[in-house]
Amino acid sequence: MKRKISILGSTGSIGRQALEVIEKLQDKFEIIALTAGSNYELLNNQIAKFKPKYAYAEDISKIEGAKPLSLEEIASNKDNDILLVAVSGKIGLKPTITAIKNGINIALANKETLVMAGDIVMKEAKNNNVNIIPVDSEHCAIHQCIKDISQVDELIITASGGPFLRKTISEMKQASVEDALAHPRWHMGKKITIDSATLMNKGLEVIEAHHLFNMDYDKIKVVIHPQSIVHSAIEYNDGSVIAQLGLPSMHIPIQYAISYPERYKGIKTKSFNFSEIARLDFEEPDTDKFKSLNIAYKAGKDGGSATVCLNAANEEAVFAFLNGQIKLYDIIEITEKMLEKHHIIHSPSLNDIFEIDKEIRIKTGELLNKISV
Ligand code: MG
Fold this sequence. Notes:
alpha/beta, four-stranded mixed sheet, 16 helices, globular, binds magnesium ion
């Protein structure tokens, strides 16, 4: 029996790589639906190749070869065994919850879902007996290491350090969009690449890990590991440390998440060679330079709507930076300011979350207009 899968965001970086994995495993997977934003040419090529029954895009009249359905209809289709959520931003949240309520397992590549509504999402997953398998390489690594979470003392999340690891704060303040997009290890979408440059991505990953593994923030550590070979680790209560290693390719965590609990050869082309890697380095993150990390920890510990504010303010500031409206370091400072002013709502409902998200984006926009370069 083939596993039936739908992909939200099939034309993005994760979506395209997921289809490369599935192409190698055509006897294992059947695609039910693909969705895109406005890259109609690529979506239609993917439909011609993988023949899903259904598809969604912003303009459904441009979809060729599959029946158009809404994101909600695609997420609630019980034909799916698994939904790969590979869209970027808050658009992933509603369909993820819909799929969970319909008992569909989730391969989650969308951090915002847990940063914005981790308490609600994990509670629904538990109530509906649904697995949420992380695609994010660090969380996928931790998922592979954990046997019994009750015996784990600490989660150790690795970070490559991004393009500014060896730069000073003042060099970072002068960085152009091109400098910030030049990630040394991973090829990803623009939003996550900028988040990796400020290390906010790691902060969001700490919050993601807190929800996924139900772990206190004090027990989640971040360590800089420039080679990106150790994708993360856990320390058990007896002092044993288990890490997951591999070459930095998103194919591996994507394949793990959609195949779990099975494993297949799939995309693997060569054996891992320790001697070729030669050395692995680790160091403490510089939290004076990468203040985002502390900001994210604080928002996570404050809980409630603080992480909704963090996510929305950061995202708006990242878009403003990509548009040339502000400098790289302003992203961090704007996010910090928005959090300082934010009045935290505890245990927000899904509606509260969307309202707060909207409000923070408007207020961040006002602040951005004041400081535009
Ligand atoms: Mg990651």
